[in-house]
Amino acid sequence: MKILVVGGGGREHAIIMKLAESNRVEKLFCAPGNGGISRYAECFDVKATDIDGIVALAKKLAVDMVVVAPDDPLVMGMVDALNAEGFMTFGPDKAAAIIEGSKVFSKDLMKKYGIPTAAYETFTDAEKAISYIKQQGKYPAVVKADGLALGKGVIIAQNEQEAVDAVRSIMEDKIFGESGSKLVVEEFLTGPEISVLSFTDGNIVVPMVSSMDHKRALDGDQGLNTGGMGTVAPNPFYTEAVAKECMENIFLPTINAMKAEGRTFKGCLYFGLMATPDGVKVIEYNCRFGDPETQVVLPLLDTDLVDIFEAVYKGTLSDIDIKWKNECCSCVVMASGGYPKKYPTGLEISGLDDKGQTEGVFVYHAGTKFTDGKFLTAGGRVLGVTATGENLQAALDKSYAAVKKIHFENAHFRTDIGKRALSAK
Ligand code: AMP
Ligand code: GLY
Predict the structure, then answer these.
(1) How far is the CA of 142 from the centre of ligand 1 (A)?
(2) Is 0.85 topped by the overall pTM?
(3) Domain 193-319 in CATH 3.30.470.20
């Protein structure tokens, strides 16, 4: 098969490497891809949000399957456009992708179907939101823009002033653009966070190995929220009892709710969960593979990913036995100095071979360019240095040993990825 993967980050690199293991794959393409991906798949300079451009590329390359990985093209309806042209496509259609595209939609869905989540109210008017927050008088207060905001649309306000500023900056200054014309104010939950990616064909849902993200920029969960500074899998807080509770109260009810709403979800549904003292609750849904969760989950997959993608598309997922390696995986993200604020690009990266790799680990490229035989930085998150091991400490030791060998000016990484997971045991 010839397969086109849409996207250009570490997640897409991880998807491509797992697809490359399949003996059904003849050729892999990626748009737009990045420096590291270009060493394993042929890359094309078409933006992941360019629906017409991607459809045209898929036709030109006569591919047998298209995998749409990022949230924005999914929410915009790229899968609908590809399906209309007869392509076998992995990813939810526009009607289903709204589960990530609108927080108001997802919160209302959970309320309607009794799926546990933080208590909330929805607002279209800034003054009403502010008076509600003041009347509640409970801090921290969580303020979320309705739409996609590059993962930054959530503000945890520590006091009344911060909450008022959050509402005004989202609704009036539109710091997240039109995604802020509606907002959700919700209860602050506490407890360890668990990411569970799942495959679903709309009929059944098969959770993948669980994982734990590290969203803050600095050690000790300090600093700004980022797209994710590192991940480990499996997540020790996702015990067998928690998994059972999630399947009964969250996973199955969610796919059944989407079906009942006429929005059958096919693809990877990501459950962002928190194990609170009152049970597991949904923090957010994503309509796609997580980044950098995918980088620690897919290396542990022991079943042909092409078979799984095809079964999801055809609605025959129950025919497949999905297997996982009994190992642990860790990913340490090396980011540009300054990320998630302003950072330079175009810095030369040393310590990588001509495939963009270093011994003992797999380096998933997130923001790199390959020019004149050199890898240069080209984004905030640059590399995800990933290793497997018989236990988490062994995996982390390999990741951090490799991080020491890779250099670019002002590279920033957390030194405590996996610390919370290790202490949970
Ligand atoms: P999200 O973009 O929805 O993943 O939110 C970003 C991060 O904000 C989450 O990973 C949580 O750490 C935090 N968060 C979101 N909602 C809540 C909540 N209701 N209570 C506590 N923390 C939250
Ligand atoms: N790592 C969180 C996300 O992909 O949204």
Answers:
(1) 8
(2) yes
(3) yes
